Fold this protein.
Amino acid sequence: MRYPLMHGWVQTKRITKICKTRDIVTINGKYPGPVVYAQEDDRVIVAVTNKTPYNATIHWHGVRQRLSCWSDGPSYLTQCPIQPGQSFTYEFTLVQQKGTLFWHAHISWLRGTVHGAIVIYPKTGVPYPFPNPYEEHILILGEYRFNNLVKLEKKVLARGTGAPPADGYTINGRPGPLYNCSANDVYGIDVIPGKTYLLRIINAALNIELFFSIANHKLTIVEADAEYTKPVTVERLMITPGQTINVLVEANQPIARYDMAVGPYVSAQNIPFANISAIAHFHYSGASVTTMALPAPLPVFNDNLAVKNGMDGLKSLNATNLPLEIDTNLFFTIGVNVEACHSSTPNKSCQGPNGGTFAASMNNITFVKPSISLLQAYYDSLHGHYTDDFPSRPLKVYDFVNGAPNNFPNDTQSLNGTRVKVLEYGARVQLILQDTGTVSTDNHPMHLHGYSFYVVGYGTGNYNSRTAKLNLVDPPYMNTIGVPVGGWAAIRFIADNPGVWFMHCHLDLHTTWGLSMAFIVKNGKGPLETLPHPPADLPLC
Ligand code: C2O
């Protein structure tokens, strides 16, 4: 066992990108940040020191944090922020985990620039279940904004509106040659004809699901969210924020330069947005650098079918922990809504639709972050910070019309609150996530902390237990699932990791609007079923 030991300095860095110079928040001055390399079952120790004027935390996205909930990182869920000048040491073991994940800030919108890859190799001597690639490359897809991200989130909240579109997308921090002054800000991979490459693709964007393709090359998916899949060959990917997908690409085309392209998937109709993209190069050795690269085709921004077809082929290689029997059935609606301004939002102005303010909810409850960490409140039995009455089903009965689960008036008055759902240790959970499409139908990338879950079902329209076809043989094991437009996803997991675990839409805008909730998973009886004491340097609020 190795002990990767690292120091992360949260610091601002002046950079010039897409013709503008800005101070952005980074780890160690890098955008994207440093890669954490480890091996399965390694202990990872990262000391984080905050040198910025903003509060910070780091989340290890997709790391299951077995008995180490204190190191999970979402602000006000498992820890108070690391305040300016303070430090906190994250410490966890990558129990039975290998593959590509990523880390990111989990406070305000700092994730936009504070993120980096986690690469976990199999144990020494254990091969990949696919032919060994000639080389491996990380591709982090990002969304770049000129705005100060801390201020931008506050502004969006205060105005009760949406967020402006990004100023550009990036591949490994580079937008590609699409803008004035970015002709040389292009990421490239040099390839040798006949060789096969493993690309570790991460969507670290704040608020946008992305299509990815390489001109003239097919992509063979071999891993999703750090779990091996049955190999499936596709023309392009749709990858949601929070997802990580590994693909094999064979350099089997004529010697030339090919584009790798990233463009938006915006399922919500009627939402104006800028059609932006990012370009990188897949460059064959021997090809001239002065020739134009062949363009990579991307679907149109609202191609829901392309997304559905992509998801249908995803199967896990071994579904070893899949619970076949269920004892806890949950049904959560997820959606964006518009609150009338007289509801519990007195400090917001009302510039959203119908003079209201945008909100989002799960089971009609808009999550309100507490003022101390929920985990601390739970652990120390401090009262008044949350209630344990998050409902197992939606509070209101949906009046489903024509398969569209969209039947709320626009000021749906979701209730505001910090409510949690308590699960007994070892509960065998099936959770249906149903998109309500209250204001617009959206593909919501739902992410659960502390667990991976099997995606046993997936469909459009309303979930119907009689007709829904579930895959109980080889469903993919993910940590983030894009719940389809006006549709549903069924996930299963065994609640065997005690702690407080956040579940939320991985579009930060929607998290800001309250599209989130938290589970409390109780301790079991044994020492390996009990959450340990908090670390001594845990930040205080
Ligand atoms: Cu990737 Cu709660 O986050």
Summary: The chain has three domains: 1-126, 130-315, 328-529. The pocket of CU-O-CU linkage is lined by residues 59, 61, 74, 104, 106, 242, 447, 449, 502, 504, 506 (CB under 6 Å). Residues 130-315 form a domain with the Immunoglobulin-like fold (CATH 2.60.40.420).
